[in-house]
Structures are given as structure tokens and as C-alpha cells.
Amino acid sequence: MNESELREQICHIGRLLYQNNLIDSGSGNISARLAPGRILCTPSGLAKGFMRPEQLIIVNLDGERIDTPNEANADLGPTSELPMHLECYRQREDVQGVVHAHPPNAVALTLTGHGFSECVIPEAIVLLGAIPVTPYATPSGTENRDAVSQLVREHDAIMLAYHGSLTVADNLWEAYLLLETLEHTAKILATARSIGPIVPLPAHQVSKLFALRKKLGKYRQGDEARFEAAWGPGVASGEVMNAVAGGS
After folding, report:
1. What angle do CA 223, 213, 39 make, to 5 degrees?
2. Contacts within 8 Å (CB) and 24+ apart, 122-126
3. Could you report the per-residue pLDDT of 184-234, keeping only the tens digit for each?
4. Cα–chain-centroid distance for residue 237?
5. What's the whole-model pTM score?
6. Rounded-to-integer distance, Cα 94 and Cα 43, Å
7. Which residues, including other chains, have CB under 8 Å from residue 83's CB and lie 6 or more apart?
8. Partners of 166 in the beta sheet?
9. Cα-Cα end-to-end distance for the chain
10. pLDDT, tens only, 58-72
């Protein structure tokens, strides 16, 4: 995408975040990598559902504004969550888009200490893997940056306890779609827990989902250990699938 198209896409995603109840008021922030050392980001405090392309701001990886202010953004500054966004770009050259939102069901899970450890939604297991939840960190500063610094190396979706979500991808649209999957999964998990105990997926089925995750290019370093910690020994190595096949 050229810069003009990317500006339009950021505003479109801002509207979707607002319309789909994934943010409210001036919350949330979006950024995309324009070129090496050039990041296009949303302004601080502006309602993301009503942004105009010319209001977006360009910064470098040190967080310094490097565009020429115009009539629409001269009085605006970059998002206060910029340090968290920049950390994602520093840690991973493949990341081209970052979305930070406040998805209500996903945040609610962190408030109750449930997290996503019982996730049994096949699509979420494949696309998101094991979703980590950071310790609480004060928003709008370096604490959130530090909270995600190590995690973003190996995760495309992270929950910030009591606060919101962070999704990253090799294009901005995919980062937004991961957020939709995250919140949809949280809503299903919350509904299921209100009905009764969640019945876990059989280990050999999780093993097949792990293999599919790898096939689709969603694998991240350390997935084996995370999958086996979350869903049981042997699910990443294929041992449980082999055992089932051998016993049939």
C-alpha cells in the first residue's frame, strides 16, 4: 500500500473498532510501518471512529515526529501508547501493523483471572495459539512497552491485564482480524463458563490443530512448549496423534 491507501485503511479500521464496540471514546490506537524507520500512527485522544486520513502522524523509531504538520494535525500529538507500538516494530521486522484495543469480553476474562488457558475454539488455537496475559501495567507509558517487550517476539496476540489487547501482523488488516478473532473467542468462552464447566478438546485433536497452525505459517518460536503447557504433553510432538492412530 502507498501512504494514501494506508491512511485510508487506518481510518477504516478505526471506524470498525468503534462500530464493533472494541474501543470507546478516544481509546485504542493503530499504527503501520510505512517504510524502514517511518511509522504512521493515530493521534492521542482523538476518537478513532471519526478520524480523517490527514490527522494521522508519522514518527521514527525513536518516537520523534518526522512529518510536516498540516492544518488537520498541527495541534495533535502521536498516541500516548506509542512506546508499545514502537517496541513491536523494533522486536520484529516482519510486523507491519499494530492494533491496540479494549475488547470488553477479552478484558473481562483478565479481570476474573480466567484468561484464555481453557481455550477450545479451533480457529483461535490455530490463528492465535496460546494467548499470554501480562501483569497489570499502567497505560500510556513505558510500563506497557516493558510488559510486551519479550512476549511480542513470539506472540501475535497479547492481553494486557485489566486494560486491553495488542495484536500484530505482517499487514495492518490481518492485525485487525486477529483482534476480531480474539474478542469473538473471549465472548464464547465467557458464555460457556456461565453455562457450566468447559469440556476440553481431546489432546489428539489439539495436536492436529497444532500441525495446521504450522502448515498455515502461524507457528511462532516456542509454540511447542506453550501448547504442551496449555493443552497437554505430546500435543506438539504428534505423540498423542500417533498413539490414537496406533490404537485404532
Report:
1. 80
2. 122/201, 122/209, 123/181, 123/185, 124/181, 124/182, 124/185, 125/206, 125/209, 125/210, 125/213, 126/209, 126/212, 126/213, 126/216, 126/218
3. 999 999 999 999 999 999 999 999 999 999 999 999 999 999 999 999 999
4. 26
5. 0.94
6. 24
7. 63, 141, 142, 144, 145
8. 100, 158
9. 51
10. 999 999 999 999 999
